[in-house]
Amino acid sequence: MNSGGFGFNFGNDDDDDDRRRDQNPFGAFGFGGANGSGGLGDMLNQFGQMLSGMGSSMNSSDSPDPVNYSLAQRIARQQIGQSAEVTQQELTAVQEATRLADLWLDDATDLSTASGRVVAWNAENWLTETLPMWQRLVTPVAQHMNEAQLESLPEEAREMMGPMLQMMGQMSGMNFGMQLGNALGDLAKQALTGSDFGLPVAPAEVTALLPANINRAASDLNIPHQDVMVYIAARETARQRLYRHVPWLVEQLVSSVEEYAAGLVIDTSHIEEATRELNLESGDPAAIQDAMSRLQGMDLSPRITSRNANAVSRLETLLALVEGWVEHVVTVAMAERIPSTVAMTEAWRRRRATGGSAEHAFAKIVGIEFSAPKVAEAAELWRRVDTAVGQQRRDKIWEHPDFLPSAEHLDNSAEFIDSLLDDGGSDEFDEEFAKLEEMLRGESSSSDEGKEADDDQDSNDDPEGDANR
Predict the structure, then answer these.
(1) What pTM was estimated for this model as a whole?
(2) What are the domain boundaries of the chain?
């Protein structure tokens, strides 16, 4: 399998239907299968396997979580296997690379260093430390998915399932936990930093690199390992500067996921329409056999949509802007210092294109599918903004989400830059007008002082007049 540089892949399958089914963490109750699979038989078979292998999870105390996270952790750790402990030498290499990258970034951005802790993780550390944020992202989606599944059932079916709802909830939580564990285990073995692709899953004020994973990735490139380490440290350090100095950024990413989840809907209308057309009520054996053969070629999986689909668009744009900004400032900081910077940036782009990207991580772990963020377009936009208005005004754009470019601006950066220049012209005019007002006030003040001085002089020149008065 071609790693495309940086060795990050999600194992893309040539069969799109199989890939979607494998990546969909919402296959509970048989939902999510394609080509007629995922029915009651498959569901019961999977449930039996879970019961035989995970009996302790079923017997555990009730949990309010819609995902069995303890099961997810066990499966992820089994998939990770034995992780070698981070050595002091690896930690020192990470700290030195981060310190050097941080120093260089001072020339490329007005956002100051993020400070905090610089740490080196292995795959198991990554799992443990990032799981709390993954829970924040996954829980609302899983919760609303459960609710949407129940709402999609006929009222009679819901009434019949009443006594079984607790068991079905446990089954759903286990199913989510199994798929989440497999996805996290896969990602832990391939992650290079604590916030790959603009996803702030590491704890706050922690800059984390995974030296073992970075060294494996560097082996695919004809570039010195230390250069790769500094480059990846620079990308991670740049992200941490954003997270520290843009306080709304992390919450905006999380709230977009929560808003999407709140609008989840399961649409089964196409299944009902297909079964009506099959005319199964005719009682004709030949017609029924023909209908069954036609069913084999149909996709009877419910369609999962959200009434708040615009939240995904905002998430996609925000991720593009974050990673585009990171790519631009890292290139500015390093291009003249490390000649291989351009080659490493291209390798990072290939990494995104071959599966190592935010949208693949969200699809596998959180269960939200969206188009690939336009990172290259965003990087070019930030470069043009930098040229047009300078580094300081470029970074001030992050002060409020309303100042950021929109999705349309990624394809038409000239419009956004024109708006900045118009604002800049207005600001310059206001500054000049303020200077003029200050100058006029100064002249008026001087004139008044001169007049008062003249009056005093006149009084001194006419003492008799004063006496007469």
Answers:
(1) 0.73
(2) 16-47+79-268+298-375, 412-460
